[in-house]
Amino acid sequence: RHRSAEFLQFLKAIDAAVPKDQEVHLIMDNYGTHKTEKVRAWFAKHPRYHVHFTPTSASWLNLVERFYGQISEK
């Protein structure tokens, strides 16, 4: 299964779980999956979603991701 299809499935799960009157802010890295044509089209149809991309050289984000990974494992 293509990663953008998995990402779209994830977005749909968020959309179903979050009340429709709430804005949703997503902080994402610049991974290509987050910018495919299908993903961009989905965001265009869902204006309550606000996407914020981290800088490409955001080494601090890698530390945060590792920290949350360790928490998840425990």
Give a brief outline of the structure.
The chain has 74 residues and is α+β, with helices and mostly antiparallel strands. The protein is 53% helix and 14% strand. It is built from three helices and two strands.
Architecture blueprint of SSEs:
Layout: H1 3-17, E1 24-28, H2 37-45, E2 49-53, H3 59-73
Parallel strand pairs: 1-2
Salient structural properties:
alpha+beta; two-stranded parallel sheet
- The helix-strand sequence is HEHEH
> Which ranges are low-confidence, i.e. pLDDT below 50, for 5 or more consecutive residues?
none
Number of helices: 3
Mean of all residue-level pLDDT scores: 86
Give the helix level as a range of percent. Answer: 40-55%
**N-end to C-end Cα span:** 29 Å
- Class from helix and strand fractions: alpha+beta
User: From the alpha-carbon coordinates, what is the Rg to the nearest angstrom?
Assistant: 14 Å
| Large-scale geometry | globular
Oligomer: single chain
- Please summarize the sheet with the most strands: 2 strands, parallel
Strand portion:
5-15%
For the secondary structure, the number of strands is 2
Q: How would you write the strand order of the largest sheet?
A: 1-2
